[in-house]
Amino acid sequence: MSKKKKVVIGSVIGLVIIGVIGFKVFSSKGTPVETANEPNVEFFTVENVEQVFINGVVTPVMSKEFTKDTTLGKLGDLNVKNGDNVTKDTVLYQYLDETTDSQIRELKFQIESTQAERDKAARQMQLELNELNNTPTSDSGEAQQAPVSKESVELKYDLSSYDIKMNQLQTQINELSEKQVNKVVAPFDGQVIIPQDQNRDSAILTLSSTDFYVEGSVNEKDLEKVKEKQQADVRTVADNKLYKGEVTYVSNIPNTQQASEGGAATNSNSLSNYTVKLSLKDAKEIRKGFHVQASIKLNDKKIEIPKEAIKVDDKTKEVYVLVDDFGTIAKRVVETTDQGASKDKVIINSGLEGLDRVIVSSDTPLTVGEPTPGGDVSAEGGDK
């Protein structure tokens, strides 16, 4: 076979192989793959309401750190454990003043010595009184004149003076004993926090009250919008729980001086921040150090959503809605009222914010935490 024929045959075979491979690839890519149908979801976007947002941290209303005080003596065992909830005046721990031990021992020895002296004096006095009673009488029946009287014998030995001395010694012992054990008590109701690693410089324990407030900050643009006694919705970052709050303090002094001297203009990244404090109501499950975001509505405009979006948890009886939280289905506990609401809608007193995207309905069940499915149908109010 000529070289030319060999080349032609090789070329044909190559083209056939390439064609087969190409056909398989094309068939693989061109074959339609069955995909799960996206659920048909109806959304409702909450109308925007002017608000001020305050990011802050949960702080106990009262907190006290207890450190070692060597002037009170040797530290004894703790009377409480980590996490204990205690009431005011509960003994937390105590010190033992070892320097008073020798003084107490000396005083007890003096009491014993005084008691022995009293016992001896009492016996001697009784002997003299017995002799006095046995004095013979005259023939006329009258007793001969005694050299001493009973009263003089009792005065001579003065047993009450021993009793007085022992009582005084015992009083000194009691006073020293009270000083020997220096009790440290809780100054208020609270929870005990004991550090895991103990050293000579660490605190013995910390007592924190179980009522909390939020300490956050607001920038200079929103400072004049925030006033004391304004109501706020406070939502925890960790578990997304909602609490009621109220502004109790607004500072008029910036936390840091970011503006340059001479009144130079500042940009958006160098605005001064001012401390804001908010009280918390019924915050029983919240913890010290939790991060929260508080929102304060600046007008009385009511948030309305379709009634169909409202759901009730069968176990907890919580009223809630499902929302699209940046592409994930989230649960929001809400407070609602029908009074003053438009037809087929409810007013949301708390739990939602302007521009929240509420899921009104879905033709298939939705699960919290899963990605939010897309939807083409939007209820009145618009789709975010």
UniProtKB/TrEMBL annotation:
Keyword Electron transport annotated: no
GO CC entries: efflux pump complex
Domain YknX-like beta-barrel: 213-296
Polar residues: compositionally biased ranges: 131-147
Superkingdom of the source species: Bacteria
MF terms in GO: efflux transmembrane transporter activity
Pfam assignment, any one: Beta-barrel_YknX
Residues in coiled coil: 104-131
InterPro entries per the UniProt record, alphabetical: Beta-barrel_YknX (IPR058636)
Keywords tagged on the record: Coiled coil, Membrane, Transmembrane, Transmembrane helix
Chain intervals for the UniProt region annotation (Disordered): 131-151, 362-384
Membrane-spanning ranges: 7-26
Protein name, per record: YknX-like beta-barrel domain-containing protein
Organism: Vagococcus bubulae
Lineage: Bacteria, Bacillati, Bacillota, Bacilli, Lactobacillales
